[in-house]
Structure formats: C-alpha cells, structure tokens
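Many introductory courses stop at the sequence. We go one step further.
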Amino acid sequence: MSARRDRFRDIVETLTRHGLGFALGNLGLDRLRPADGTLRQHRLPPRGVSMPVRVRLALEDLGAVYIKFGQIVSTRTDVLPPEYATELARLQDDSPPIAAAEVRAVIAEELGAAAELLLESLDDSPLATGSIGQVHCGRITAEAQDAEPGLSGDTAGGGQPVDVVVKVRRPGVVSQINEDLEIMAELAKRAERASTRAAGLHLAALVDEFSQTLRAELDYVQEARNAEQFAANFAGDLRVHIPRVFWATTTSRVLTLERIRGIKVNDAAALQDAGIDAGELARTACSVLLKMVFEDGFFHADPHPGNFFVEDDGRLGIIDFGMVGHVSDFTRDQLVRMLLAVVEQDSARLTTALVRLCGAQADGGFGELQTALGRLVDRYAGRPLAEVPIVAVLTELANLLRAHKLRLPRDIALMLKMLVMADGLGKQLDPGFELTTQLGPFTQKILLGSLSPEALADRLKKLGREALRLGTDAPEIIRRMVDVLERGGIDIHFRVDELDRLMDKADKTGNRIVAGLITAALINAVGDLVSVQPDRWRNWPKTLFAAGIGGVGALGAYLALTSRNRN
C-alpha cells in the first residue's frame, strides 16, 4: 500500500506542477497536494503554454503507461477534441535502455538450455528500446530452426544460421504496468463521477480498452501468433514478407523473429537511389493494408513508416505485430449498409447503420445527427469515389460522433486510424496519391459480395432461424398480451426523446414478425437471380434449396403454433 500511496502522490505532484491541479479536488486527491517549496525543486512547464501541451508534458513526466495511453487516445478523434489529439500524437516513448546483462539474464531464465541458441551471437547493444521491451540483433543456429518450425515467413533455411531480432520484456514491467493501470482506472471512474465532460469522453471505457490493448502487448506469444496469422493471410503473395517466428526461442517474455532488412518506406532519398517508384510503392503498401481490413478482417493497427521496409527483392517487409485489429461480420455488414446509404444518398439509413455500429455507446436521439449526415452526403453527391477526400470525411464523421456522444468500438477506431495513417503514408511517398482510388476496388467487392450466392444463402438461413424462434416464442407472448388486456390493458408513458429508440425497437420487432414472409419472398427473388446469372449460381441449388426449405418450415412452424394457441 505504501508504494501505491507514493504513486498517487507522484501523480498529484505532476498534475499540480503542470497547472492541472484544479482537477485534484474532483478526484478526491486534494489532500495529497504538495507544498509550493517542493514544486520549485522540479522543472516547471513554460509559461503561457496551452492546456493540451500541459496535458502532454504531464503524461510524459508520469512515465511509460501514461505516454502509451496518450498515444493511443490521440487516435480516438471520435471522443477527443482535435487540438488534444494533435498534441498527444507528439508523445514519444523515451525509455532508457536496460543493461545487456539483464537482457541475457531474462533470456537464460526464460529459455533454459535453449538460451544457448541465442546468447552466443546476441549483440549487446540494443537495436531499439521501448517502455515494455528492448530489441537486440543476433543469429540463430540451424538446430533452433529445425526444433519447432512455425508457419510464418520463409521456411527454407537451408541449415544455415539466420539473422534474427530478439525482443526481451523489461524485468518487473508487468507489475509496474498493472499498478499504474489500476490507479488509472480508479482515477477515470472518479473523474466521470465528478465531471460531465469526463463522462462525455467515456474516460473509464477508454482506460479499459487501453488496459486490454497494453496487457496484450505484454504477451509476446500473442504477438508471435499475430505474425503467423498475417503470414497465413499473405501466403503466396509475392508483394509481402512477414518475418518467420522461431518458436524454440519464443516465450511470453522473449520473442525471436527473422530479421527484416531493407529501406524504410519513408526514406525518399534511399528509395530514389535504389530506383524504386515511390508512386507504385504507395499503391502497393496501401493495397496491402486495405486487404487486411476488407478481405482478411485482421489488420496491422500501427502502420507507421518505421514498421515497413522495402527489401532488395522488392517485397514489402512488415514488422511489429503487437497491436492488431479485427473486423467482425457484423461490422462488415454495417459498413456495407453505410456504403449503400452513401451511394443512395440516404441519410436515414446511414444514421441507423452508424448508430448500430457504435452499439451500446449510442445515447439520446439522432435527428440532428441525421440532418448533419445528410449535409455531409449531399456535399459529395454525384462525385466519383476517387474524388471524395476520405480523410476529410473521416475527420468530419469523428467530429459528428463526438458532438452526439457516440463512441466507436475499439477495432473500428483502430481501423479509421489505420486508414488515416495509410493515406498519410501514401501522400508522403507520392503527393498525388489518393486513398479513395485504392479503396474503390475493395468497396465494389464488398458491395457485390453482399449480393453473392453465399451471402444470400446465409441470410436465408438466418431468417429461417429467426422465424423458427419467433414461432416458438409467439404463443407465450400472445398469451401474456391477452392476460394483460383482460386485466384492463396497460398505460404507456414516454418522453419525446425516447421516440427514436422506441421506433428502432418496433422496427426490430416488425422484422421478426415478418421474417417467415421475407424468407418466402427471398426464395422467389433468388429464383429470378438464378435465371439471370445461371452460371454463377449453378453450384448453389442444394444450399439454396435447404435454406428455402428451412425458411418455409420455420414459417409453417410459426403458423401451426399460433393456430394451436388460438384453439
């Protein structure tokens, strides 16, 4: 407890020193405020600096966990005002290196006898340092390559030693991070209780998301699995090189990967000297990132230039797989709905899809949001997709979400951040680059995919299951309604601002009631599609027949059960 109190005092002193002491009372920490004489012993921030700068300086003084929190929150433009997001993006992790002897001790403790495979050829000078781990170069023997082959990277080692990078987690960092995360979570909850502004930022939820992200980065086995997943997704793709994982010398504290060598994608002079077409590189890099999102549903969430290299053979080498994002089927479905709504200039559908994408974070009515989205859609009406400034649209969309107290799920926020970074990388390589030009084929593929035989068959199955569920539940629901009506009915009271949510629930209920009828209609529609595109649908009669029979059967079950209830 003494160490915890000391950490609280350190936080209080840092906030006070940077002119943020006004928050201490609301956080219940005012009693820990230090005397002015103590403050004068420390470097004070420059006079006249803005509040965002003060926040950044305070986070830097508080250390690694708070720096990482600021870096991640800086990408959440859906909840953070732009001036804060811009300033926090400048945060740098300036952790001092740990001694080579400590690195070697961790490796020996973790790997046991297998440590000899690395220690003999490990460089003592670090290649990179960070708040969580430190990276050293080395070489790995043929026996280590054969001990437990992984799925990632090139498997042909030819029995020759391979250059590797070894990432070693800092000793004691887990307990330090856990303590800071617990304190941060407590402070966030206090802030939300005391401040409507903090509550509007969903500060506690942001801290919770951050905690999950940071704890995932502590486990190097998970990072190794991420690398293997990327390798599987790009298997056979000659554009991309994912480093091989050496599992014989990998644990939760030690990660051994094949070393990637090449030119950093933002080194314009070196690229020019190597005769590499910067415009083509921009298109390739962004196409790879978009494939991760829209085809694989699993993407690299930190695509800054330092993680991408152009190798001698022209392949794009990618490193650092600690932070990743996922795109679920539900998310993909809502994105399709949003794209269709934009194409059709339907602000109502766009609003509904966006609110559903935000899920439980939605709060209040959305009439004003629909109006604002209508203006946004109208502004780009009739333009080809390649002429729509995607980053400007995403920025405006984030501003609208923040104004209407909507918060995107973590993975969607990461995806938007990745798209913005991809656009920035493309423009850095080629000033004439437009991300929307690269987006075109992917969005077209998504829209066509939503009308594919596979997608329609899946919808038929889902509708059949929904109709069957309704048929099972309907008798009991109807019985309860009759009982209530026989007792004199019910009184309903609601406020005007509840109408949107009420209508949304009514819409869902209506969808369930007519699910069986829609199933029959879809079967008829599929028949029309088959007649128009017989070649594409030739392999699908069995699936569609089964789905159609399921829908008809569900509808029959519903009618039979409701009929039995009436009798």
